[in-house]
């Protein structure tokens, strides 16, 4: 039976291998173009952003003062994890770029709101989210973790 | 379904499974599962992750300390080291993921356990404002020595729908299905759960949320076969409390209803009020009222352990309410502070209270609990570290469960991304 369990683990590994392939993106996280924006949410939607990932949660954020509207891309699965609403104030740190050469956009690395910090990516722009995250929240409640 | 085996004490007074008439494949499979499987599993997954293109690897190491591991008046201290990992591979809307967890207890080494999980999930947008999430997970948890009868295999299906019914209002619904098979068939169950929530955000930075939860849990055979003459001493479920509090009380279940299942149905209502105080401070209050609308706990007693699951306790076990508040503060240098207080009043239907002299008090067990939480987290470039302290004061009409305890956790989490930069 132990052999079966090993076999099961390795088969899963093979499955993961079989589905791995390079990703091609239209744009990349550029640490040199990082900026911090404080603003208010104007719109929330899911949009396709990258070829090999699920659609992203994208927020239209109007910058305080200038009222410039940025498209802030958050992540795919965090659409479920976090509840953003129109009118909420956010502080976003991320990589700035122009969509189609004209629309200001931000790939979010960190979001601060309601007294919390959401670390979406590390300082090099690599994502922090992962599969099973949505379900994991419920699963970990009773075991291995406690409290807040 | 007949129970083809029995649980009894061995010569060391430990809790062991004795295979009975006929072969029951599940227990015999557990006999052969060793902790080193966890290590091999991790190595295999890390190998796949490192060299062959999975997307990310997440690691966490948490050191936990408590003066009351088993959460009763006898206050047994212990430390729990918890190592966990998860990795995943995305391909379009699908992702495959696996995770593992190993917990080492310094004083109670027979409760050491590991958990392994494999799964897949799928995220599908339905227009720009709605998304569907589906996941299917298989997992197993394996304990050492005395607690092997708590070993289980688990299948979990989960489906969620989230929709912006308005830019300031979110509708969310979940459905979950769990099938869990234990080494000791007493605890086997399946369950269904439905969850619905609606929230509304106001310009005053106030969020109101209402939640409705329904669940049904069915123990497939919580009663003992009288012929099997099963003896489960209570200390089996709770080490350190002394042997046989209910001497002759025999089983965790009521005897005589051979092979009959029992279901518990619950419904709960929750309300939450969250208030933002600028971007750096958040405050929320919540209250939950839960009712058991049919059935009751099939076991004689209910136990909660610190960081270790016990099959006699979960969200289906109680009827009552919980109220809590939490303050979150974003401090300088990206330090997050959370302070929380929770009060709960829970009655456990079907669970009788006993005196310390092992005599029935003729009342249903009721616990009133106050809890304070304090958590500090610092996020660095690639890792985050945290410290968490909790104090719990539990007042029960069953004197064994009149206890308080301190719980401290120190940990770090590390996320490493292997895929192409996005």
Could you provide a short overview of the structure?
Chain A is 20% helix and 36% strand. With 148 residues, chain A is of the alpha+beta class. The interface between A and B is large, with 74 and 110 residues.
Secondary-structure blueprint:
The complex is a heterodimer of chains A (148) and B (422).
Chain A: H1 2-19, E1 34-47, E2 56-63, E3 69-73, H2 78-81, E4 89-99, E5 103-113, E6 116-119, H3 133-139
Parallel strand pairs in A: 3-5
Antiparallel strand pairs in A: 1-2, 1-4, 2-3, 4-5, 5-6
Chain B: E1 5-9, E2 15-19, H1 25-31, H2 36-51, E3 56-66, E4 78-91, E5 94-105, E6 113-125, E7 130-143, E8 152-166, E9 169-182, E10 189-202, E11 206-219, H3 234-237, E12 262-277, E13 281-294, E14 319-331, E15 335-354, E16 360-379, E17 383-396, E18 403-417
Antiparallel strand pairs in B: 1-2, 3-4, 3-18, 4-5, 5-6, 6-7, 7-8, 8-9, 9-10, 10-11, 11-12, 12-13, 13-14, 14-15, 15-16, 16-17, 17-18
Major sheet characteristics of chain A:
5 strands, mixed, barrel
Low-confidence stretches of chain B: 1-32, 227-258
Shape of chain B: globular
β content of chain A, as a range? 35-45%
CATH class of chain B: Mainly Beta
In the CATH scheme, what's the topology name of the domain at 31-128 in chain A? OB fold (Dihydrolipoamide Acetyltransferase, E2P)
Tell me what you see in this structure:
The complex is a heterodimer of chains A (148) and B (422). Chain A has 148 residues and is α+β, with helices and mostly antiparallel strands. Chain A has a domain at 31-128: OB fold (Dihydrolipoamide Acetyltransferase, E2P) (Beta Barrel), CATH 2.40.50.140. Chain A has helices at residues 2-19, 78-81, 133-139, and strands at 34-47, 56-63, 69-73, 89-99, 103-113, 116-119. A five-stranded mixed beta barrel of chain A has the order 1-2-3-5-4. Chain A is globular and about 65 Å long. Chain B has 422 residues and is mostly beta strands. Chain B has one domain (5-417): monomeric porin ompg (Porin, Beta Barrel). Chain B is built from three helices and 18 strands. Classes of the chains: A alpha+beta (148), B mainly beta (422). Chains A and B meet through helix 1, strand 1, strand 4, strand 5 and strand 6 of A and helix 2, strand 3, strand 4, strand 5 and strand 6 of B.
